[in-house]
Design goal:
Belongs to the sulfotransferase 1 family. By secondary structure, the protein is of the alpha/beta class. Helices cover about 45% and strands about 15% of the residues. It has 17 helices and 9 strands. It is globular, with a radius of gyration of 19 Å. It starts with a helix and ends in an 8-residue tail after the last helix. The structure holds adenosine-3'-5'-diphosphate.
Length: about 325
């Protein structure tokens, strides 16, 4: 999740400085509200560049998510599924055995921080796979021409996961401060409800273009979700692959228990600039851990906002 903590400032239009600003997590994370979403200046610069210059190909796949919602897992599953002809999941030399899932897929926010991005994007093999935390509006109009796979997570678990992640940077950070910021909407890429609803509505309007997955469903039925993912990206599993157990190989390769102890996921930092260990991406990997950390009042507060924001949208948690 370099997008959560990237410190590098970028060139922005002058009027950007006049946008409403806030400080997320009761601390030094300064963000501004750009087109309805809270972004650091680094992320706003990427959003501006993406809106101006992002021109994906028809067969590109963008993996999108709000931070701490299953990005790392979906990156691994999408990469293992799409690259399975070049890299069979059961292969002892599979890239996911020596690289962190985020190293296998370029992160749009980082690609679009400089004009060198086009060259890097063009160098990717087709169909290209990319990752972003941007709200849908920030990757449009480009993303309108390709396919997007979104993963959504139950908000209380997302908040607890976010709190644990941020404590690698600020050990004294209180869960209450993270919850306050999430509830106010003013967190990087937030408000989370608007982030989720943007992709949810697009998945209903254009199910051929946006696949909406849920972290809890991935946990319940990983193989079924991998089959759906493969169909959606236009690479369904053949009968021969099904018989050979390719789906199970992919699920096993990308499972929490398998990925977490690998050297690429348990040593080193996420980004040379960001002092967060890679192991922060693999904490517990379950549903319902919020109950071990939130008071009933905290849970009720978030549940009430979520019920209100998702009322009559067809999406329930
Ligand atoms: P927890 O903090 O609740 O354990 P993201 O990848 O979007 O940053 O989300 C991180 C969350 O996904 C963390 O949740 C992490 O443990 C979990 N996660 C990472 N890899 C996973 C995997 N292969 N299977 C299941 N969950 C995984």
């Amino acid at each position: 999740d370099p997008g959560l903590v990237s410190p590098v400032p970028e060139q922005l239009p002058e009027e950007h400085a006049a946008l409403p600003s806030a400080s997320a997590f009761n601390g030094p994370t300064n963000i501004r509200c750009y087109q309805g979403f809270w972004l650091s200046d680094y992320l706003s610069a990427a959003a501006v560049a993406l809106q101006r210059r992002f021109e994906p190909c028809r067969d590109d796949i963008i993996v999108a998510s709000f931070p701490k919602s299953g990005t790392t897992w979906l990156n691994a599953l999408a990469f293992a599924t799409m690259a399975r002809r070049a890299y069979p999941a059961a292969d002892a030399g599979h890239p996911l055995l020596r690289l962190n899932p985020h190293q296998c897929i370029p992160f749009l926010e980082n690609l679009f921080r400089s004009r060198a991005e086009a060259a890097k994007l063009e160098a990717l093999p087709s169909p290209r796979l990319m990752n972003t935390h941007m709200p849908l509006g920030m990757i449009m109009p480009g993303a309108g021409g390709c396919k997007v796979v979104y993963v959504c997570r139950e908000p209380k678990d997302m908040v607890v996961s976010l709190w644990h992640f941020l404590r690698h940077l600020r050990p004294d950070l209180a869960l209450a401060d993270v919850l306050d910021s999430v509830c106010s909407g003013a967190v990087p890429y937030g408000p989370v409800w608007d982030h989720i609803l943007g992709y949810w509505r697009a998945s209903i309007a254009r199910p051929d273009a946006v696949l909406f997955l849920r972290y809890e469903e991935l946990l319940r039925d990983p193989a079924g979700n991998v089959r759906e993912l493969a169909r959606f990206v236009g690479l369904p599993f053949s009968d021969a692959e099904e018989e050979a157990g390719v789906v199970q190989d992919i699920v096993k390769l990308c499972s929490f228990g398998h990925l977490k102890p690998l050297e690429a996921n348990s040593t080193g930092q996420l980004d040379p600039l960001v002092p967060v260990p890679r192991e922060a991406l693999f904490r517990k990997g379950v549903a319902g851990d919020w109950a071990n950390h939130m008071t009933p009042e905290m849970a009720r507060r978030l549940d009430e906002i979520v019920a209100d924001k998702f009322h009559a949208t067809g999406l329930t948690f």
